[in-house]
């Protein structure tokens, strides 16, 4: 008998239940310890730590988006940093439009970098970004449209495996080169920075930082629920079948390219949301975020945590980025060696990642639940 209870897809997912509980606890505890506990107290969480933890959560959402397509559909994307960066640029454009006052009849004053480059008027693709609702919509639309165009061309042409990975990497490299150009209107190699406020709130205030942390935790929780719902549905079973035996799925009459395109677009949108939440917390977005090395590092996060586990990708992203924060301060020249060694060790000794190597907990059946 089919279980029609809400969120029934989480009943057989103890790891997801733990993750959601931890996110709820963090969303309540971290802002509380930052805003309500005196700075002299041992339990006080400084504002810089709130922003750092919020950044980790956006990376976790980005890793989740990669695991959705790689772990369950077999699509190894080495270009997901592009969707993350596009979401960040969209949010950066909105915050740049909030700087300064309006000109005559409400026409926007040019951002500082456009004035410096002697631009005479605001480019047409910047219009509308002074409205937060429009910018929030574009956070989904811009990565989603790029994923649709790229995926439609690639999946329709039966590009798979290493060839697909290579062209996703070529895509993000091409975007990086384009955004480095000053005449693109996105700040060139300096990117977009010096943001002042978001929705009228000062980005440097403790309250705004705490709110961004809560928004990141909420986005990660919703992203996890959406991903778990997809992979637990009939659609998810088709995705796994495509991962394991794509030719058989196609011979059975399924249009596999449609399934792959759908999940690729959803994954790109999740990455765009992660980028949009990342930028106000770090205060800058530049073409370096498109670097292919960043996309490769995302795959390492997922591999370390556990491919095909969703919560494993979240764990891997947080652990690896914590290690990065530590080593780039303690031994900055050693970090790349540590990262490479971590990936090699995971491949040799933990091929299923941290979560995948932990024995599954036996689940007791509930009477009447079938």
List the helices and strands and how they pair.
Blueprint lengths: L13 H22 L11 H27 L6 H18 L14 H5 L15 H25 L4 H19 L12 E2 L3 E2 L2 E2 L3 H27 L1 H18 L4 H27 L1 E2 L6 H14 L5 H20 L4 H15 L3 H4 L14
Antiparallel strand pairs: 1-4, 2-3
Helix pairs in contact: 1-7, 2-7, 2-8, 2-9, 2-10, 2-11, 3-5, 3-9, 5-9, 7-8, 7-9, 10-11
Please provide a written account of the structure.
- A hairpin with a 2-residue loop joins strand 2 (197-198) and strand 3 (201-202).
- With 370 residues, the chain is mostly helical.
- The protein is built from 13 helices and four strands.
- Helix 1 (14-35) runs antiparallel to helix 7 and helix 3 packs across helix 9 (256-282).
- The strands form two sheets. It has a two-stranded antiparallel sheet with strand order 1-4. A two-stranded antiparallel ribbon has the order 2-3.
- The chain has one domain.
